[in-house]
Structure prediction request, 594 residues.
Amino acid sequence: MVEYKWIVLTNTTLGALLASLDGTILLIALPVILRGVGVNPFDASNFPILIWLLLGYGIVTATLLVTCGRLSDMWGRTRMYNLGFAIFSIGSLFLFLEPYSGATGAWTLVGFRLIQAVGASFLFSNSAALLTDAFPANERGKAMGINQIAFIGGSLVGLVVGGVLATIPDLHVLGVVLPTWRIIFLVSVPVGVTGTVWAYARLREISTRAAHQRIDYVGNVTFAAGLTVLLIAVTYGLLPYRSSPTGWGSPWVLGGLAAGVGLLVAFLIVETRVRDPMFRLHLFRVRSFAAGTTAALLGSIARGGMMLLLIVWFQGIWLPEHGYAYSEVPLWAGVAMMPMIAGFLTAGPLSGWLSDRQGPRLLSTVGMVIGSATFFLLALLPLNFAYWEMGVLLYAQGCGMGMFAAPNAAAVMNSVPAENRGSASGMLATLQNTGQQLSLALFFTIVILGLSSGLSGSVTSALGAAGVGSQDVGILSHVISSNPTGALFGAFLGENPMQVILGAVTLPTPLPASVLATLEAPHFFAEAIGPAFHAALREAFVFAGAVTALAAVISALRGARFVYGEAPAKVAGTGSAAPAGSGAAPASGVSARR
Prediction:
């Protein structure tokens, strides 16, 4: 008979893998999906669709995670986890069957992605709590290591899976055409259904429930509304506003930022005054919890946006410059990211196992130091790098992520009483997902502003070198450089942007066939925007390195290993005192601030 703890580990690992994989599979497969539903990705009016398909999933999960964790503490973690698997599977099925086309079809996909994200919120918020309930304190690092591989590794594997699926042709089954874009969504359906049936059949409720507590309606509403409004405002800050390349000067964006921050401040006030708060803020007085969650937030801010910018670098710049056709770049961009997956798989399980014996502080701190160093080294790479240089840095970055993730998650979950594990797991996942959304906005803004200042010069120079006449140079340069957001998406969307631009612009002087062939070559657009993009990318890498270095400092300040309910004498060793999942108060002499 298989021990129950291994059943929990395998099912939660499947859930974390599936939910995180679907969070990133669209990053590379998005061009195929948009073409499949008949949406022109280069039309500025469709940019909101692009933004919501890319970021909507993360916005919903970031908003709901704490609420889902709190409800799970009250109503049963297994029950809510199982419900999440079912909702996720239903959303996946709806995405596969979506019946419309054009803008209606694209917005319908957005809606079904949001349903999928609701299910993912219950999976994310309960995985760590279920593992903490099932495993003893001296094995949680190992369990978290495996689960964190699925959680973070799934987001990396999603890039490869999306790239592979984006290149396969439409399937013909019994006379029915199954488009490639539907196959991308179909992948989640059988896995999700299997996981749902398995979860309902084998998982049971062993957690300490806070059934006597009331739902904090005001706290839930203020938190969900505040974070939603804040993240939506941040998202729309990426879109052009009037003559500005970004929307940070828009009154709607500024108003949304102010309203979101105001609601979150109100949430903090409410949580200090209600009898049964949605989240017990006093947990932040526990040094291990506060340091672990803060370091996780900063790590997500540094890492989340950089993943997408690396894909842009590969898909839009490096691969076309090396002769890859635009139809092939999604696949090879996913393959190019594989060293990061290998690094994570190398360090993740080992660091989790070691943290059970040596504590989390050294491993998590060294992981963040490695991550910071690789960001600074990435800033030194030339635009046209040798791949082995990038591969080594991606592997090192993956190792750093793996060294940090499992020990940090185990430390956070060990530091809270049993009845608060769902809330703690939800808060940790919320901070990670919120950090990713903020990261995308921050790094996109850095790159878009960098492109707006340097794009005109690099594009004009490239057009002139290609033999374009002076009048035509002015027109084409204005079309490209006046829309840096479009140029960034153009580099990312796996199509030849110059063909789209030349087909939409009437030039006073017809271009000779030789010049036209040069402009439509895969490498031209990459070389035209490359210098401006690279200068902006370096600034983003330096910023990411600095944020990760700060996370390393905070991680180092987390204090000695602390397990809630264990006496200090037992913490240092491999033995255990009172069961860490018992929910008992800390033993005498164990301060909340360790």
Notes: The CA atoms of residues 271 and 280 lie 7 Å apart. Residues 569-594 have pLDDT under 50 and may be disordered.
